[in-house]
Amino acid sequence: MPSVIVHSKPTIGEKEFAAAGRYLKRGELTMGAAVEAFEDAFSKRHEGHLAVAVNSGSAGLHLSLLALDIGPGDEVVVPSYVCVALLNAVGYVRARPRVVDIDLDDYSLSPKALAEAVGKRTRAVIVPHMYGKPAKMAEIRAIVKEYRLVLIEDCAQAVGATFDGRPVGVFGDLAVFSFYSTKVMTTGHGGMVLVSRESLARRLRDLRAYDKKPSARLRFNYGMTDFQAAMGTVQLRKLASFIRRRRAIARRYTTAFAPHDVEVPIEDPHRLSIYYRYVLKIPRGSRSFLRAMNEEGIHCTRGVYRPLHRYMGLPPRRYPNTEGAMRRSVSLPIYPGLNDKECRRVIEAARALL
Ligand SMILES: Cc1ncc(COP(=O)(O)O)c(C=O)c1O
User: Fold this and answer.
1) Most buried of 1, 97, 104, 353 (most Cβ within 10 A)?
2) What pLDDT digit, counting tens, does each position of 214-260 carry?
3) CA of 352 to the centre of ligand 1 (A)
4) Are strands 174-178 and 150-154 parallel, antiparallel or unpaired?
C-alpha cells in the first residue's frame, strides 16, 4: 500500500526551530521584540504599509471592522464561496452580511455582483484573493470608489501574490493575512493586518491588547507570541522559494491535465497566483473523482467546505457560480514539500480518472 499524500503540509525546518527556541529559552513569550521584527519585515515586503500582528486571520478581520467603525445597521458585502470566518467577522460586530456570487474564472468575488449588491447601508466589501490568485482589483476598486465603500482585502490565501507587479495587501483600506497551519507561510495560528493610514494602525494596536489602558473601552487579547513571530520571520524569508516551488508544481499539473476534459487554472501575468490551492474543474462533477483519489491515498478536497449562502439558508439559485464551483471543483495536493515522485503519483492517479 503506497503512503498517503496529504492535501496540505507546512514546510518548517531547523531555522524555524532555532528562531522559536531562542525566544522560548529566554522566556520572552508575548508581544515583544520578535513580534516587532516580524511586523517590520512584513511591512518592508508590502511597500512600507504598517503591519499589525494578530493571533489569527479571524482576529484580523474582526479588528479591521472595529477599527473602521463598522457595526449594527451597516452592511458588508462578502462572496459566498469562501471560508466561514468572513461571516463570523461580520457577525462579531453585528453588521449585516450581504452575500454575493463569484466569477467562475477565478473563484473570487464578481465585480458585477458587487455593483448590483450595493445599497444605502453598504459600507464595506471584503475581497478574498481565492486560492492564491489576486481578485479583479481594477474593477473592484472602481466600484469601491464610485460608491465610497471601504475595501478590506482578504489575503489569507494569497501572501506574496502580485497584481500588476504589486503585492496583494496594498490595494485596500485594510488587508488581512492568515498564518494558519495550512497556509502558504505559517506560525501555527496567526495573522497580520496591513494598513497605510497611521491612525488606523494606532486603533488596531489599541484594540489588539487590553492591559494597562486608560479607559474601560472594549478591547481584545489578539496579540501574537514571540516564538510564533520568530518563526514567521523565517517563513517570510523563505516565501519566495515556497512560491517558486508551488508554481513549478502547478506548471507540471497544468501540462499534464490540459489535454483532458477538465478546466485547469487560468494563468495571468497581471494577476500572478501563488497557488495556495491547485483547483481543477471537472465538468461532470467532482464527487466520484474525489472519492477515488482519497481511496488511492491522495487526499483531495472541494476547496471550500460549505458556501456562506447555504449556511444562511439563502436560495442556491441566486448563487449559480458558487453552486457550480462546489459541484465541479477539486483541490489537489500542492506544497513545497511535495516531491517529484509524489507529483507524478498525483498526476497518474488523476489522469486515470479523467
Ligand atoms: C479567505 C480566508 N479568510 C480568512 C480566514 C481565517 O483565517 P484564520 O483561520 O487564521 O482565522 C481563512 C481561513 O483560514 C480564509 O481562507
Assistant:
1) 97
2) 999 999 999 999 999 999 999 999 999 999 999 999 999 999 999 99
3) 33
4) parallel
Where in the sequence of the chain do the CATH 3.90.1150.10 domains occur? Answer: 239-353
Is residue 157 lining ligand 1, measured as CB closer than 6 Å?
Answer: yes
Ramachandran quadrant class, 132 (left: phi over 0; alpha: psi -120 to 50; beta: rest): left
First to last CA, the chain: 23
Q: What is the DSSP string of 224-289?
A: -BHHHHHHHHHHHHHHHHHHHHHHHHHHHHHHHHTTSSSBPPPP-TTEE---SSEEEE-TT-SHHH
Residues whose CB is less than 8 angstroms from the CB of residue 318 and which lie 6 or more positions away in sequence, other chains included: 101, 309
Please indicate whether residue 56, judged by its CB atom, sits closer than 6 Å to ligand 1: yes
User: Which residues share a beta bridge with 125?
Assistant: 77, 151
Atom number in ligand 1 closest to CA 191: 10
The residue whose grid cell reads 478574498 is 128
What is the CATH class of 14-233?
alpha beta
Return the pLDDT at 70: 98
Tell whether ligand 1 has an atom less than 6 A from the beta carbon of residue 132. no
Residues of the chain with CATH 3.40.640.10: 14-233
Query: If you classify domain 239-353 with CATH, what class do you get?
Result: alpha beta
Low-confidence ranges of the chain (pLDDT < 50): none
Block residue for cell numbers 479583479: 136
